[in-house]
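Example record for the data management plan.
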Amino acid sequence: MRNLRRKKLEGLFYNYPRNKKALQFKQEKIESLTSSVPSGWTIDVSRKTHAEPDSFMVNRVSLIERVEEEFKDLQEQVDFVETLLSLLDDDYKEFVKLKYFENKRWDVVADELCIGVRTAFRWRDRIFEICSPFLTL
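Corresponding structural encoding:
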């Protein structure tokens, strides 16, 4: 169970930079889809009301709903990681940035933080202890 939690936390940290970029892309996609609706059409996805729906609009609304759901899921993951980071002190945040966000090797992380590799592993374990109570499996 402990290893599952560690893998989940590491996965969240490793995916954070990619999720941030995907979040921005999804936001732009939503704006593009909603702004390219022909004039005279109204889209209110939350109420699912549309003026004179045809197959184009039905497909468009379906796509918008799917992208908005993906956006919401990504936003939750990004917010969760940012909440976890707020629990950490500056040294641990820098460790997470180097190890997980920039995907650097253990020896490089240790050198940049002016600590030993074994200390880097201990920091990882301490970060896990701090964040672990907030993880669900």
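Summary line stored alongside the record: The CA atoms of residues 10 and 88 lie 15 Å apart.
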